Amino acid sequence: MSKAGLRRLTEDQLISFITNGFLIVEDVLSTDEVKVLSERCDMIAAGEADHIPENSLQLEQVFREGEKPVENQVLATRKLFDIAVYDPVMWEHVVHPKIIAIIIDLLNTQDIKLYGDQLFMKPAKVGAEVPWHQDSASWRDIFPMEMVSAWTAIDEATEENGCLTYIPGTHRWGMMHKSKVNWFSSDFGSDQWPIISAPLNPGSISFHHSLTLHRTSANLSGKRRRGYSVHYMRATSRKDESVTDAPKMPPFKQVYGRSFENCV
After folding, report:
1. Count of domains in the chain?
2. 62: domain CATH number?
3. Are 160 and 218 in contact (CB under 8 A)?
């Protein structure tokens, strides 16, 4: 793609994403926009949004298994998922013009649909780690396997409270079963496969390819780390109905541009 064809990114930024499989863009959202997102996600996590299905909320494991009592549901929540299709405030974030302009550049199309969304709450002290994985290893019924996730920091994300970390270039490995990732994990952090942390200030966004290996560490700090991840795909993507062990998603909503017959 030529520089003239880009809407929001520079040519260097696009090349960085193509090379590494992720890209950090600072200060995409204003302070006021982050505040709206913050208040809405806490309201939903508190169970105060009757329009959000109960099964869209998952508590941290220590609360699910009864190791700790739930004294504050917001601070016990691990994640909320598939909420934007039900909630107008979260949907406004999904279709935010600044975010969509970047997604158009990264996917090289103006025809975009929402695959899904996940609001990771990562509460202080008990927020569990998420091991190395590729998103498309779970979303393996969608082709081509090159969706883009836009992970927006609601709180400051640091190495101490569990910011995203990536292995650059691993989106070119193809989809790997989770068990196969362990073959290479001992090499992660080497000169060949360095580990890159992605600390973010509130309102900044990390974009990553759905095959890029990434993880987050446990949050052992005293500060929670909320991040809202929206997963975008081309409207020309196809869904393989023969794959039965992929997540069961709500109907895919149009984000921008055109829809196509026999596609997602």
Report:
1. 1
2. 2.60.120.620
3. no
